[in-house]
């Protein structure tokens, strides 16, 4: 199994990659799955919490409704502060071992990993969503209310579509951060990429070579995701090349509808 003692760095890299390549790829797959699913669920949690934190209460509401609203805001704020203010590695330990000791819930390490990544991402996304909603001009909310829309209709049809576009870069950042931060889940024995690399390093006693391979795999995953997310952003923005229609089709008395084409040409129907 061992190479000669005078083997160079790249010789060891190729040797370890050949013997542990499948294990590294399996670990990378679990890492990406944890990050992707955790980010998606976290975005849903963050979207819900962010909208609830912007929920207004009417001035003429009764005391019970106002008290309930304050209690809800306190709980949501506490959730955000706790999970943004503590490391994910500590959250994983508390959730995995604490649930087993206190509540007698014996969850698998992988399920605990999904849960921790999701609620941790949700806390960060909640503030991102709240900030995104606040960045939309208040006149759009007032206009929607003026035509009879409720708060939830205004959020669903007017505010959130714009908010999601504005916060898309942050969603991508959270995905990339989660790809890297899932490495802390090795403390609860989740067999992600770092855990696989640590096992290989211990077997060969070649830490530099093993973690060089791990570093390259992490970079490939994060770089690919960042390029893909940029492509999605450009697709959502649409093309920057267009021609303006210079005539009013509805005002043409002849009944024809002239349409301005590229290059200054028009056609009628």
TrEMBL record:
ABC transmembrane type-1 domain ranges (all copies): 28-229
Source species, domain of life: Bacteria
Alphabetical GO biological process terms: amino acid transport
The keyword Transmembrane is annotated on this UniProt entry: yes
Family: Belongs to the binding-protein-dependent transport system permease family. HisMQ subfamily.
Keywords of this entry: Amino-acid transport, Cell membrane, Membrane, Transmembrane, Transmembrane helix, Transport
Pfam families documented for this protein: BPD_transp_1
Membrane topology of the entry: Multi-pass membrane protein
Transmembrane residue ranges: 20-50, 71-97, 109-126, 210-232
Any one GO molecular function term: transmembrane transporter activity
Protein name: Inner membrane amino-acid ABC transporter permease protein YecS
Organism in which the protein naturally occurs: Caproiciproducens galactitolivorans
A GO cellular component entry from the record: ATP-binding cassette (ABC) transporter complex
Subcellular locations according to the entry: Cell membrane
């Amino acid at each position: 199994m061992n190479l000669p003692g005078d083997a160079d760095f790249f010789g060891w890299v190729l040797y370890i990659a050949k013997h542990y390549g499948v294990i590294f790829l399996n670990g990378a797959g679990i890492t990406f799955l944890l990050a992707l699913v955790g980010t998606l669920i976290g975005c849903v949690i963050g979207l819900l919490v962010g909208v609830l934190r912007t929920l207004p209460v009417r001035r003429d509401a009764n005391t019970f409704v106002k008290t309930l609203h304050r209690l809800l805001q306190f709980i949501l704020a506490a959730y955000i502060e706790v999970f943004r203010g503590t490391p994910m590695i500590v959250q994983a330990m508390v959730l995995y071992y604490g649930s087993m000791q206190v509540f007698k819930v014996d969850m698998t390490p992988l399920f605990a990993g999904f849960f921790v990544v999701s609620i941790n991402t949700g806390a960060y996304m909640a503030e991102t969503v709240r900030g995104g909603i606040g960045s939309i001009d208040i006149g759009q909310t007032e206009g929607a209310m003026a035509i009879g829309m409720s708060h939830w209709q205004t959020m669903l049809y007017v505010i959130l579509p714009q908010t999601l576009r504005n916060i898309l870069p942050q969603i991508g950042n959270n995905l990339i951060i989660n790809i890297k931060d899932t490495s802390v889940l090795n403390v609860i024995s989740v067999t992600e990429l770092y855990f696989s690399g640590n096992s290989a390093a211990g077997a060969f006693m070649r830490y530099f070579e093993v973690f060089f391979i791990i570093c390259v795999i992490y970079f490939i995953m994060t770089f690919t995701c960042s390029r893909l997310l940029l492509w999605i952003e450009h697709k959502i923005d649409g093309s920057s090349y267009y021609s303006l229609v210079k005539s009013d089709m509805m005002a043409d008395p002849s009944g024809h509808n002239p349409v301005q084409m590229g290059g200054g040409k028009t056609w009628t129907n």
